[in-house]
Amino acid sequence: MQIDIPSPPPEGCISCEVLGHVLLIGINRPAKRNGWTPAMFQQLAQAYTRLEDEPELRVGLLHAFGEHFTAGLDLPLIAEFMKAGQKVIPPGLVEPHDYGLPGYRRRAKPMVAAVKGICFTVGIELMLGADIVIAADDCRFAQMEVQRCIMPTGGATLRMAERAGVGNAMLHLLTGDPFDAAEAYRCNFVQKVVPAGRELDDAFRIAERISLQAPQAVVATRLNVLKAIELGQAAAVADFIPVQQLLSHSEDAAEGVRSFIEKRPARFTGR
Fold first, then answer.
1. pLDDT one-digit tens code per residue, 48-71
2. How large is the average pLDDT for residues 18-28?
3. Residue 2 scores a pLDDT above 80
4. Across residues 102-110, what is the average pLDDT?
């Protein structure tokens, strides 16, 4: 799919486009390999918050303009926030890394990510914070914070071990060395590797497919998976009956039964 690149300001921006029920969220600073500035982080949080707050939006798709997903932080601009112990994103918004940072909302709706070219540091952490990742086969990854006397604080220390085991996580976190798309797939950091140039199309097809399902059931299913990971199996199981009961009283549940009887695709409204 072709998306026109809006002309960004020097500090970059996040460009959004709605296609059906999918919100495409584009990282837009290609002249600087999509290096992240404070303004970009703030706009990304606003885009994630928009996804949560607009009922017609059911799925987010994070992608990037230009040849690369991101070369990481624009460190001179971000370093002052680190020294002061300040967060770049204003509190009260949805925090895109989605690991439960106090003072921020968490995302309930699903997020698909399409990554390509260079995907360093914050790029890896944003894709690990998404739910499904499609990677181009030309991707180069590196979690290189230790090479700059920084600790990864966007979720890599949490999710790399969860996905790949402690040894594989330490290999990539403690060396900061680059790795390719095949290694990212081996470590379960990405779910599919496709020929370069196809990643956005494939990611959109998945996002669109998700958007056709019952929105309340999609959210409930996603949150139950995360609850099992973060709080344990018993906490997730405890939600089975009450959440199922709540869903069963919705208009979409009735539509699901009708579509089953009538042998047709369901037409869900989110109610």
1. 999 999 999 999 999 999 999 999
2. 98
3. no
4. 96
C-alpha distance from residue 248 to each of 139, 214, 252, 255 (Å): 43, 12, 8, 10
Q: Measuring CA to CA, which residue among 96, 17, 102 is closest to residue 57? A: 17
Are the beta carbons of 70 and 118 closer than 8 angstroms? yes
What tokens does 136 get?
């181009």
Kindly report, residue by residue over 240-250, the tens digit of the pLDDT: 999 999 999 99
Section 119-129 average pLDDT? 98
Establish how many alpha carbons lie within 13 A of residue 182's alpha carbon, considering only the half-sphere containing its beta carbon.
0
209 class by beta-carbon count within 10 Å (0-12 exposed, 13-18 middle, 19+ buried) = exposed
